[in-house]
What we know:
By secondary structure, the protein is α/β, with parallel strands linked by helices. The chain has 14 helices and 14 strands.
Amino acid sequence: MSDFAHSLDRDGPDERRPTASRRIPLAQPDLGVNEEAYVLEALRSGWITSRGKFVDRFEREFADAVGSAGALAVCNGTSALYLAMLGLGIGPGDEVLVPSLSFVATANAVRFAGAEPVFVDIDPATWCIDPQALAAAITPRTRAILAVHLYGHPADMDAINVIAAQHGLFVVEDAAEAFGATYKGRPVGALGDVGVFSFYGNKILTAGEGGAVTAADPRLLARMRLLRGQGMDPDRQYFYPVIGHNFRPTNIACALLCAQLERAPTMLSRRRQIFALYRKGLAGIAGIGRQPVTPDARQSPWLFSMTIDAVVFGMSRDALMARLAALGIETRPFFIPSHQLPPYLDAATRQGAKLPVTDRVAASGINLPTFTTLPDAAIAEICAAIRKLASRGEAALQLSA
Ligand SMILES: *Cc1c(COP(=O)(O)O)cnc(C)c1O
């Protein structure tokens, strides 16, 4: 139905302009018949705000999908993270343990709440926050662990929950990239106190912009609901016991999400196929490393991720990305670790943050195009291009040796 013209480049100068470097974009939404039908239904009903039936329906169905007692739809994932912090009462003077290798919204949410993110290294076995490194980062001010299921791989939640219980900490899961992932057979998002999801245009389920929080504790859910809706007393109009935000979603967005959720199994299985095709197509190329998958994890196939060992591969990560862009293949470097970004540099220095695994993985990582409508032929083309560049690199190294 759609073509490759609508690349979802969050940071690009013009996210809708097709360019030669985006003949095969990194991501693209998959919008089907019911997405259109439900959005039309929402429009025709006249209910386009958050007071529409698709909001309740989505919250119920999403909670079921992740095996959580309750869910709240939120206007985007970043606000959902912030809502989680506020819901747990995290504020000034508090510290929250976070991985530095994440989308910047993870650390930002802690700062929005007035608390301080404390950066912890990642585990090479998962690329998620390292449970072994957590204990050393805990201080009397630590209130919570904010674990990110990076690139769809679940963090080691049992180990994290044990440490949290020992020290009386809350556990928040940033599952923005991980809808559909399971840890020891249990879906992510229901493994801590609060689960957070994003439905941005390049995520596994999308409403263009959107998010959700999940929680089992009814009081916590009620508090987050209050804070999501201006802080208004549910039983008394225009009475505000607390200062709240407006983090509500629209009925239109939730209409889209209801349809996306119906197709989630099909979309996830196509993404799993794409991951398998990439693994096969890239097998045996020297210098390419893969995101490990632990035996107790079922990764959610968000963006296919790999690392480049520049010496062995014969070309740096950035050079490879430039060569692929020249062929019309859009890729993405891994997130720049938050502790290296200007808002967090000073704090990270004060913390004495030493994050060697984070630094190494971040500097060598690359995401390849991953979306359900990506044809097999495009994956074959991408793998062939990488293979060709690798052998050329090897030849160049041999010549210079
Ligand atoms: C996408 C993402 C977010 C933010 O979600 P938005 O809906 O874009 O605000 C937060 N954390 C992680 C890890 C993400 O990938």
